[in-house]
Write a structure and sequence with these properties.
The chain is α/β, with parallel strands linked by helices. The chain has helices at 16-41, 48-51, 65-80, 92-101, 114-141, 189-192, 207-216, 230-237, 239-244, 261-270, 275-292, 308-320, 345-349, 365-368, 411-424, 443-452, 464-469, 481-487, 521-533, 536-545, 559-566, and strands at 5-7, 86-89, 107-110, 158-165, 170-171, 174-175, 195-201, 254-255, 258-259, 297-303, 325-330, 356-359, 377-379, 401-406, 431-436, 473-476, 492-495, 515-518.
């Protein structure tokens, strides 16, 4: 009997035909998965440590449960059609789930090692634990040496705007807000004095350098470290200990008819120490400290991805500031397979969501309500994407065809793109190359993979819009940049990472002739050659055929819209 093998080992690449089936499975089971997690949460609905876990929040970027359930269903379908008779895995918990759910007619080759599995999980969690210890120790001690003064007047109500700080967020001590560019341009100096940015530090290690920038910048920051106490860091740090005591309750868990107890345990163990969950607790304690210091909050605007930091903040705000309006701003485009970003009915019922969700385009409101029809939404300016509304010349800016690679934030995705493009180089010629890295990615990891594929010299420091203007074709993955590219009229290739469900951020109701999903090297090479062969006029014709209206997805940044968003205008326009 010929062996038809499905290799699900961690470093394996699935055939295109299997990846297509896997994507279909993800589309089918997403609603059931949301209900499944809601049922699982019922045991711990009042437990903040559980609520702030990636498992509870359906965070498919950090939690592998959804992915593994999809792969179990993939095995079921392929075996029932006699497309496979053997499965390979090097994951102990996946192996145990397989044994529980499939008969012995299907061969399972187990490459896992319980000692290595234990060591790997221990190493992963230990690394995160030491990172937290370093992070919290520095953040607790530094303000005692670098005094971060604030213009906060406790007698005046303030608007708090939550944003993310990266290593490159400052230019000569001037804060360059990547998430709300242009927002303050539509406010008066008096209004600016009431708006304070509450930072969330992403990928920051040199806090000494950061705190010096915060000390010298003229931007109004509400610095958490000025309010937090040692007990707050201590409580957040030891959340893993409290979570470890709940493991014994995880048993006899089924998704539809599939026993997924082992997969739930796997996700729980992998994420029992979570920097995001700890930051959610830190934010929860911060709001309590602000209240005890007499800070008056008129409005709180979150950078909203339905992450633990969002929920931790909301729980505390609704306890200590029950009359403060909370707006969650979704300022990005993301895939339906990033399930956690999409609010659930349970989260609404349990008061774990903002009072309103601001979306950056009128056609996005219905998409964000897919699991929560009663969610209250409003339109917000698409601050990050205003350049897309400016008409641009459709003529190519360079005589030589230019390919722009926009790397996503996650290692598995940018590694696949760079490794594949390293091979593409041998099959195409006569083109320019630009590579735009993501500010939130690990710089050392990216640099190594670029070096391994001889691509280091092609890094560009241009911003995304300038890079797009210089390009003829864009290659990217699970990033808002994919939609930016399509809206800019650029042919775009979305690259599958080859081992998991596709995270396509382009809304399904956009029927575009400008983008394609590539699952392997042949797909990429064929599509690049196809778009290189087109004339300027043929590209313009493709743009005309693309079925979307950009103003349905990109809301202009106007004075009125900004005033409403900030709560400075009493008239409120809802899109419910």
């Amino acid at each position: 009997m010929k062996k038809n093998i499905l290799d699900l080992s961690s470093n394996s690449i699935l055939p295109k035909e299997f990846l297509l089936i896997l994507d279909d499975i993800a589309d089918e089971i997403r609603p059931n998965y949301v209900d499944f997690i809601s049922d699982l949460n019922l045991k711990y609905i009042n437990d903040i440590d559980w609520i702030l876990t990636d498992l509870s929040g359906r965070n498919t970027l950090n939690c592998t449960l959804f992915e593994n359930i999809c792969k179990l269903e993939l095995i079921k379908r392929l075996s029932s059609n006699n497309q496979i008779n053997e499965v390979i895995t090097n994951d102990l918990f996946f192996y145990k789930s397989f044994v529980k759910n499939f008969d012995n007619k299907l061969i399972i080759r187990n490459k896992s090692n319980i000692i290595l599995k234990f060591s790997k999980t221990l190493k992963q969690n230990s690394t995160k634990l030491f990172a937290l210890l370093y992070n919290y120790t520095i953040r607790f001690l530094l303000p005692k040496f670098i005094i971060l003064k604030s213009s906060l007047d406790k007698n005046k109500p303030v608007i708090i705007l939550e944003s993310i700080i990266y290593e490159n967020s400052f230019d000569n001590f001037v804060f360059k807000d990547r998430h709300y560019p242009g927002l303050l341009e539509n406010t008066t100096e008096t209004e600016k004095s009431t708006i304070f940015i509450l930072p969330y530090y992403y990928g920051i290690w040199d806090f000494f350098k950061l705190f010096k920038k915060l000390k010298k910048t003229k931007t109004n920051f509400l610095i958490p470290e000025n309010f937090l106490k040692f007990s707050d860091y201590y409580y957040a740090f030891f959340s893993f200990f409290r979570l470890s005591r709940k493991i014994k309750k995880i048993k006899n868990i089924k998704f539809n008819t599939i026993d997924v107890t082992d997969l739930v345990l796997d996700s729980y163990y992998k994420n029992i120490i979570s920097i995001g969950s700890c930051e959610g607790i830190i934010r929860n304690r911060l709001i309590k400290r602000l209240k005890s210091k007499g800070v008056k909050i008129k409005k709180f605007i979150q950078w909203f991805e339905n992450q633990p930091i969002n929920k931790g903040t909301i729980i505390s705000l609704k306890t200590h500031y029950p009359n403060t309006k909370i707006t969650g701003h979704i300022g990005i485009f993301t895939s339906p397979n990033v399930i956690g970003l999409y609010p659930s009915k349970q989260e609404l019922d349990c008061d774990l969501l903002p009072d309103e969700i601001a979306v950056i385009g009128k056609n996005l409101a219905s998409l964000i309500k897919v699991y929560c029809p009663d969610l209250k939404t409003l339109l917000s300016p698409a601050f990050r994407f205003q350049d897309l509304l400016i008409p641009k010349s459709s003529n190519r800016l360079s005589k030589k065809f230019t390919i722009l690679i926009i790397l996503p934030i996650f290692k598995i995705d940018y590694t696949m793109i760079l490794n594949l493009f390293g091979l593409v180089n041998t099959q195409i010629s006569d083109y320019n190359l630009l590579i735009k890295t993501h500010p939130g990615s690990n710089h050392n990891f990216v640099s190594k993979i670029l070096s391994d594929n001889n691509l280091t010299d092609y890094i560009t420091n241009k911003n995304v819009q300038d890079a797009l203007a210089s390009s003829n074709l864009v290659i990217t993955s699970a990033s808002s940049s994919a939609l930016e590219s399509v809206f800019s009229g650029k042919p775009t290739l979305l690259i599958s990472n080859g081992s998991s469900v596709l995270k396509n951020p382009i809304p399904s109701n956009i029927s575009s002739n400008l983008y394609s999903v590539c699952y392997n090297l042949d797909d990429i090479v064929n599509k690049i050659k196809y778009f290189m062969s087109l004339s300027n006029q043929q590209i313009i014709d493709l743009q005309k055929l693309s079925n979307f209206n950009i103003t349905d997805y990109i809301e202009p940044n106007t004075l009125s819209a900004t005033q409403i968003f900030l709560g400075l205008d009493k008239s409120v326009v809802n899109n419910e």
